[in-house]
Amino acid sequence: MKVSAVRALFAVANRPEIVSLAGGMPNIHDLPLGDIASNVAEMILTNGAKVMQYGSGQGEPRIREQICDVMALEGISAHPDDVMISAGSQQGLDLVTRIFCDPGDVVLAESPSYVGAIGTFLSYQAEVVHVAGDDCGIDPDALRETVARLEAAGRRIKFLYTIPNYNNPSGITQPWERRVEVLGVCRELGILVVEDNPYGLLSLDADPVPAMRSVDSDVIYLGSFSKTFAPGFRVGWVLAPHAVREKLVLAQESATLCPPVFSQFAISTYLEHSDWQGQIDAFRTMYRTRRDAMLKALADHMPPGTSWTHPIGGFFVWVTLPEGIDAQAMLPRGVDARVAFVPGAAFFADGQGARNARLSYCFPPAERIIIGVERFADVVRNELDV
Ligand code: PMP
User: Fold this and answer.
1) Which residue has the CA at smallest separation from atom 11 of ligand 1?
2) Which of 78, 232, 281, 316 is the most buried (most CB within 10 A)?
3) pLDDT tens digit string along 202-231?
4) What is the DSSP letter of 302?
5) 24 lines ligand 1 (CB under 6 A)
6) ipTM attached to this prediction
7) Residue from 248, 273, 251 nearest 81 by CA
8) First CA to last CA distance, the chain
């Protein structure tokens, strides 16, 4: 484990005069706090001794049923017995890695991939090998070649970690045909798939593409309430084949005894009594406005030679800067110009991404996003003049 140089700069990036396009915090200001408070108060008064007690290592039965209803929206048909609750999907990732990976094992990941997952894999001394992709996500031929190369070198591949919906950081969504192709290659080569889908219900344009898990029950699926409700509860889940789920519960019990009971009941209550689907629609409308503002500002202000992705959901745009620019070196000059972003190298385990930056549109309001992109474009232009 190592301290991220970027994190040190984030302390500075939180200053109010800086527009932060760096963080991935969901904007939860519009949640109906009064309703949530009275429902949670009622829950404590009627059920306090249970909701504040230790609970099941697998997670509470009622929320596991409700999670199956949530996953049904992504085309997944699952049994509550196959669901394990985790402290955010981040802990799900940790436990999956813990049960599968020994030092020196290989985890395959997209190019680029989620910085928090890379950190977890590395913390178990697994090696992260990125598979090349295109605008539709993982390239099935590159996947085949990468597996062949690693196996010829005697390496043990434990799984492919993938974020097919609105990838963090690239914003790319894998179309259905590509998902089927990637699953086909993995099945043929005996590679386990770990599908991470915290943004799945936050589609901003078309209807969401069904999850990979919807057609392949061997896929290990990670879900979360962090982006569709609120991250502070720290409730996510893992849906896994029975034998894997059993091992995950043992790992969960050794890590925490049980996932947070109070949070599970609070979320259960929210799902029971609030219009959670209406709230997700409201989030989608809000994020759509912000996404549109960012894409327009990029088109209006970025210098020639810059390109970026056009996400159809989630929180992130992935920018490729003109030749010769090093985003990491540029970051302090961005902070001086009062804009923060995440340099692309953070999303690779192998030093790629020097010319990339992740810009997020989830947290600042549209007016601030436009100012942030204008500042970002100025910083890039100044780099080109140097
Ligand atoms: N996976 C991805 C792709 C993410 O972007 C995040 C949060 N940024 C997580 C997992 C972890 O989310 P949480 O633990 O809050 O569920």
Assistant:
1) 90
2) 316
3) 999 988 899 999 999 999 999 999 999 999
4) P
5) yes
6) 0.99
7) 248
8) 35
Angle at 375 between CA 381 and CA 19, to 5 degrees: 150
- Nearest atom of ligand 1 to the alpha carbon of 87: 14
The predicted model gives 64-79 an average pLDDT of 96
pTM: 0.96
Kindly give the number of the ligand 1 atom that is closest to the alpha carbon of 24: 8
Are 278 and 99 in contact by the 8 Å Cβ rule? The answer is no
* % of the chain residues with pLDDT over 90: 94
- The token pair that represents 141 in the structure block: 């031929």
137 C-beta neighbours (distance < 10 Å), count: 23
Whole-angstrom distance, CA of residue 239 vs CA of residue 64: 10
pLDDT at 207: 87
Q: Is 314 in the pocket of ligand 1 (CB under 6 A)?
A: no
Ligand 1 centroid to residue 186 C-alpha, Å: 24
Q: Output the six-digit token pair for 294.
A: 């960012």
List the beta strands (DSSP E) in the chain: 19-20, 83-86, 106-110, 127-131, 133-134, 137-138, 157-162, 193-196, 220-224, 236-239, 307-308, 316-320, 339-340, 342-343, 356-360
Q: Are strands 339-340 and 19-20 parallel, antiparallel or unpaired?
A: parallel
